[in-house]
């Protein structure tokens, strides 16, 4: 089955279409005050909805920005709010969180209790989606989406009630939690209310497909997803095509792994290709997920070259867009494939990138795990608060419930912290083993595999002799100029020899020797070694530089490396 933990399906492209359609269109001229040119605003609303429906978010921003500034100059508060929130929603789809924040901060001072409820609803939607995309803050996003649902339900706004429910479903989907099925069913039932927009019906079917997919009800998931695709085609909702084909591909891939039928694999491949074909309007998060899922499918089918090509494409998009959602998993996949095919240096480079990302998000990931535990409690508390306003007699029960919730939360928090600790420990062990394997090959003369000219090989061989016999790398003043003088050549030839034969720059080559010796010393005399002394002996100018280079080379800090070495000597992992 597809790995559910990796599924992040940000629904901004679809949800905001519904919000724009349902929120902006119903306003009448009487809703505006001040110096608002109603005819002009109506015209802009029509353009906004058409752009959004077609996924033309850059055009939407370009055509709205001037109107936004004009409404500010005219002190037209309502038009200012409309255009500002509209551009914020477009920037969500364009993966430009700084711009989202800029425009939301601009309109926030004008939001008050007297603001039209439907505009408040849209404002809360943008805030909630921003919390997900920028901060991965599930509880805060859930709070904003529940506010949306409360506002819509109170005003009898069916379309926006559906949209709010679908956003709540999305949070469960992000967390691979099939318990969101109830919200999906509520949204689906509401979508059959008289006069409901076809986009709401389409998206309600998508939500059902997602939740049933998580529930392993693949046939039912397929039926809802195909109905959603039919509605999208009929109505021309181009912004959802890529997402829908990806969902269908994942469903067929799940059927294929469950051995339901041989044709499932071909259909999965077809829909993955269709998702790529319609990816022009897809978000970076959707695209990286697409290439990750397609790569895993190709890998499972034994198409390793295609898999690694897809992973590289996903990484390229992730790095270009700054989107972090799947970068860690993509690094790990490329590293594992490179290692299995014997490309040790490439594998080590990607493992190190993976390790850096783990270190940078480790504490953050812990918070995300903790946040996910809060979801159930926060949702329960929200519903509880609504009931308490009507029935004061439940106060005593609420106190008992809160105590029980805190106790349960504490137990689950401790459990997930332990799980995260174990996972990170396992990652450290993998990196330690990979580096030792690479170092062993380095000692055996793996650099001989590089196909270079005889002159270059000869120069590099003499450099290796000097490094091993005279340990030139220990010198603090070592440079390509000084070493070229020692070898009786010039810096250009020496740099070329290192690049050709070692595949790295001269500084990286020197550091590889330094860190290899450091790793050997730590392995043999770990408890007796002072990092300051070791750094000094190996030619580093400071301990901090040594630690940074050591971690870059091995993927582990010296202290972590020492712990893994001790664990390896004892034949197991310490708890």
Describe the 3D structure.
The structure is a single chain. By secondary structure, this protein is mostly helical. It is 77% helix and 0% strand. The chain has 25 helices and no strands. Helix 1 (12-24) packs antiparallel against helix 2. The protein is elongated. The model is unreliable at 1-39, 360-374 and 444-452 (pLDDT under 50).
Q: Any key phrases for this structure?
A:
575 residues; mainly alpha; Arc Repressor Mutant, subunit A; elongated; disordered N terminus
Topology:
Elements: H1 12-24, H2 38-54, H3 57-73, H4 77-93, H5 97-107, H6 117-135, H7 138-155, H8 158-174, H9 181-190, H10 198-214, H11 218-235, H12 241-257, H13 263-277, H14 284-300, H15 304-321, H16 327-340, H17 344-390, H18 395-443, H19 454-470, H20 480-487, H21 491-502, H22 506-525, H23 531-537, H24 543-554, H25 558-570
């Amino acid at each position: 089955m597809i790995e559910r933990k990796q599924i992040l399906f940000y629904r901004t492209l679809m949800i905001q279409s519904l919000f724009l359609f349902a929120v902006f269109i119903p306003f009448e001229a009487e809703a505006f005050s001040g110096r608002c040119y109603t005819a002009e605003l109506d015209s802009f609303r029509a353009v906004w909805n058409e752009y959004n429906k077609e996924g033309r978010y850059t055009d939407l921003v370009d055509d709205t920005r001037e109107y936004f500034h004009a409404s500010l100059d005219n002190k037209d508060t309502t038009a200012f709010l409309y255009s500002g929130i509209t551009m914020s929603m477009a920037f969500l789809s364009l993966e430009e969180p700084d711009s989202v924040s800029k425009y939301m901060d601009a309109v926030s001072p004008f939001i008050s209790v007297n603001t039209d409820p439907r505009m408040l609803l849209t404002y809360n939607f943008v805030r909630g989606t921003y919390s997900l995309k920028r901060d991965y803050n599930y509880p805060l996003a859930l709070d904003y989406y529940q506010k949306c649902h409360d506002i819509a339900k109170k005003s009898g706004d069916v379309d926006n009630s559906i949209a709010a429910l679908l956003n709540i479903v999305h949070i469960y989907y992000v967390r691979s939690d099939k318990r969101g099925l109830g919200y999906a069913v509520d949204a689906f039932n509401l979508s059959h209310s008289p006069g409901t927009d076809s986009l709401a019906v389409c998206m309600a079917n998508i939500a059902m497909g997602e939740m049933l997919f998580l529930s392993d009800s693949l046939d039912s998931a397929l039926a809802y997803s195909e109905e959603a695709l039919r509605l999208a085609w009929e109505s021309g909702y181009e912004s959802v095509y890529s997402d829908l084909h990806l969902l269908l591909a994942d469903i067929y891939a799940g059927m294929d792994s469950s051995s339901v039928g041989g044709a499932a694999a071909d259909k999965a491949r077809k829909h993955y290709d269709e998702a790529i074909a319609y990816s022009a309007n897809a978000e970076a998060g959707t695209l990286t997920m697409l290439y990750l899922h397609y790569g895993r499918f190709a890998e499972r089918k034994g198409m390793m070259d295609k898999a690694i090509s897809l992973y590289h494409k996903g990484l390229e998009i992730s790095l270009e867009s700054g989107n972090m959602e799947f970068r860690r998993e993509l690094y790990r996949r490329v590293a594992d494939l490179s290692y299995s095919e014997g490309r040790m240096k490439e594998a080590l480079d990607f493992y190190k990138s993976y390790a850096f990302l783990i270190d940078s998000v480790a504490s953050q990931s812990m918070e995300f795990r903790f946040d996910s535990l809060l979801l159930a409690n926060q949702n329960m508390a929200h519903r509880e608060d609504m009931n308490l306003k009507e029935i004061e007699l439940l106060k005593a029960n609420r106190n008992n419930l809160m105590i029980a919730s805190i106790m349960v939360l504490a137990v689950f928090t401790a459990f997930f912290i332990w799980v995260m600790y174990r996972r990170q420990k396992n990652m450290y062990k993998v990196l330690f083993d990979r580096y030792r394997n690479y170092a062993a090959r380095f000692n055996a003369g793996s650099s001989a595999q590089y196909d270079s000219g005889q002159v270059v090989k000869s120069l590099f061989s003499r450099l290796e002799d000097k490094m091993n016999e005279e340990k030139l790398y220990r010198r603090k003043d070592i440079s390509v100029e000084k070493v070229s003088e020692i070898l009786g050549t010039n810096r250009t030839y020496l740099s070329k020899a290192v690049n050709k034969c070692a595949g790295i720059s001269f500084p990286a080559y020197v550091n590889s020797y330094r860190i290899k010796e450091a790793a050997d010393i730590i392995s043999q005399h770990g408890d007796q070694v002072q990092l300051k002394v070791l750094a000094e002996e190996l030619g580093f100018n400071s301990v901090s530089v040594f630690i940074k280079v050591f971690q870059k080379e091995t993927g582990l800090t010296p202290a972590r490396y020492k712990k893994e070495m001790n664990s390896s000597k004892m034949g197991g992992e310490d708890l």
